[in-house]
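User: Please predict the structure of the protein below. I'd like the answer in structure-token form so I can feed it into my own downstream comparison script.

Assistant: Understood. Taking the following sequence of 140 residues as input:
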Amino acid sequence: MKVTELHVESAISSMAPGSLQEDAKAAEWLDRVCHHHIEAALQAVGAEEVKYPHHRLLYERWVTRKAEGFYAEEGCAAVFGQLGQQPPPTAGIAMADACGKRLPEVLRGEVDILELLFPRGGFEQAGTVYQADPHQDLVA
């Protein structure tokens, strides 16, 4: 068995019963949050405003995926208000939401994404994703 397979098997076996379903729900919400912020950034930022080449590549990819209907599942307005549901309170979702709100600024080069992930060079915010979200063990 490969080391990665052992790591995944170990992480899965250490999970509490029902946690895989909770993780699937959290992953679905994480996708929704990311799609919401990508859609909002595409509306707020024009291609000519994207400052850095690597961000332009991402932007172009998002535009292509939007044209393919990838972000049109339910629309931005429905993401957080759908049937009164709230996303599970995970550190990963909180970080994606906090950083996603500033995605237009990142694309324009007004703020460095590393400063959003590691404020003042600290690891506290990013570290909570790995400490608080048990399913992150699968990718660590």
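That's the full token string. The chain has a mean pLDDT of 77.
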